[in-house]
Write a structure and sequence with these properties.
Distance between the termini of chain A: 57 Å
Number of strands of chain A: 13
Number of helices of chain A: 11
CATH superfamily of chain A: Ribokinase
CATH class of chain A: Alpha Beta
Number of domains of chain A: 1
Helix content of chain A: 25-40%
Order of helices and strands of chain A: EEEHEHEEEEHEHHEHHEEEHHHH
Largest sheet of chain A: 9 strands, mixed
Strand order of the largest sheet of chain A: 5-4-1-8-9-10-11-12-13
Oligomer: homodimer
Chain lengths: 308, 308
């Protein structure tokens, strides 16, 4: 059987400080959050690297949410570690440390069995590596990619610009869309990025929701109203996992399905931020997801207005 | 006939600098924007003050959108003038000057005919004056109020806290909701403000839409996606005018009508920001409003998702 959904990204240990608590060396990384979220809809295959300090309890989490461990390289050394502190408003955050460790020399090796996935997600890693992965993949129907300010502002801008025409979809946040286009208004930035390549662009605005641009269509979606945001870490990758998992399961990439998938991603992300690290996300049940959807509909359904 | 909708606020001349242009001494002020927007649904009555420099061309604008000029005081001196410059992202702005002029000694006088309005909007003026207006009004079914950081942070905080239990609805932006409650998350701030008095709270988030809190109900609404934002001045007052105009015309203040009214206000505000000052708003036709609503529905309608 062909791989359904392939994700290439990071697996990490995160140290997270928030105004209300702290987590040390919690299992994280873009590919981890993505896989857990996607696994509610399909079983993703993972390409990533960890160090020899990656214990069986962590391995179990990845095994539970992915097809197999063929794409997980275990390299001599320590797993990628990141530490960050959220500001009181939970929107901004400062990076306390970044220890790339085994990630520094990571060259993604895509196992033969993963080379023709139905869909592919290039989580945030060096755009040069994202390009190499894309070169290795023989055939796929939908390629989405995430990136970050570090790459856009730095020496990898050209690599990103080279990657964009090969993507079906770019998923970034509003700050990144500004850095990429120079346009502060996401409604202008989205179409500008489409002109750089991808037919579909999703601009995430954290607690303010997102804007989906697909061909000439614009879709504005609020976030789930939440009073108990505990830790925003991984929300973007969780969104991407729900989004990609849903369209992969549907096997359809039309505008209606993409819109629906942004709702699914939004719901998944709402669970992610309600706990430290992956804790709330892994505990989420299908019944809870349905209940959250029902609540979201209640909070966003517009009554008809009478302009007679 | 009783007054339907009474607004007390400012009439001003605004000097506006944006990244793309400049307007000098353009007719503005909270009561002006409010009245123009509200007049699409009911004819509001206005209580405000202008100076002897307020020309017939400006008077005509107010006359056209309000019941009569009984509440417009013409005082010796110059009309209130404000100047501001928007930052390149159009979100932040700096005040260049504030000349209160005749507004400095303004004491709102509510004509006898206006003392039992169906609904009342206290636009952003000194909370002590807002309280005096409320004292003068004999009977009304729905009172909404706007305020700003200047009053919340300054010596009028107590006056605002005294006013809140007398309001049906407070309409403020996210920054102001934080100043009032100390809570950075609007989803927490909204209910906290409800506990201070008003049954209904609307927290505006500019281009990110708004959150309506009504009793236990939460309604999240995106803004109209706009690529051509020319001048955000007056958008909040225009929103309030559309909102209050709609519920006054409906004569209903239940949750469903309030939700609908936030959509109407959002649509009206989308016209306001597409021109300098009031120019685009006054030119708006009912057909254009319907067309904008149709576009908004296209941009925000959620497809069903399949979580089976």
């Amino acid at each position: 059987m062909n791989t359904e959904l392939l994700v290439v990204g990071s697996v990490a240990f995160d140290t997270i400080h928030t105004p209300t608590g702290k987590a040390d060396d919690a299992l994280g990384g873009s590919a981890t959050y993505f896989s857990i979220a996607a696994s509610h809809f399909v079983t993703p295959s993972l390409v990533a690297v960890v160090g020899t300090d990656f214990g069986p309890e962590h391995m179990n989490v990845l095994e539970k949410h992915t097809t197999d461990m063929k794409g997980l390289e275990i390299a001599e050394g320590e797993t990628f570690r990141w530490g960050g502190r959220y500001l009181p408003d939970m929107a901004g955050r400062e990076t306390l440390f970044t220890h790339l460790n085994v990630f520094e020399s990571f060259v993604p090796k895509v196992p033969e069995e993963y080379c023709s996935p139905k869909t592919l997600f290039l989580a945030n890693i060096d755009p040069v590596l994202q390009t190499q992965v894309l070169d290795h993949v023989k055939q796929t129907e939908f390629v989405a990619c995430d990136t970050m300010n570090f790459w856009i502002e730095g020496p990898r801008r050209e690599a990103i610009l080279g990657l964009l025409p090969r993507l079906s979809c770019l998923i970034i946040n509003d700050e990144e869309s500004m850095l990429l286009t120079g346009l502060t208004n996401p409604i202008e930035a989205g179409p500008a990025i489409q002109k750089m390549g991808p037919n579909t662009v999703i601009i995430k605005k954290g607690p303010h929701g997102l804007i989906l641009f697909h061909e000439d269509d614009i879709f504005a979606l609020p976030a789930v109203p939440l009073s108990n945001v505990v830790d925003p870490t991984g929300a973007g990758d969780t969104f991407a996992g729900g989004f990609m998992g849903y369209i992969t399961a549907k096997g359809s990439f039309d505008g209606e399905t993409l819109r629906a998938a942004t709702i699914v991603g939004t719901l998944m992300a709402s669970f992610c931020v309600q706990g430290f690290g992956i804790e709330r996300l892994v505990a989420m049940t299908p019944a809870e997801l349905k209940e959250q959807y029902s609540r979201f509909l209640t909070c966003t359904t517009q009554p008809e207005i009478d302009l007679a």
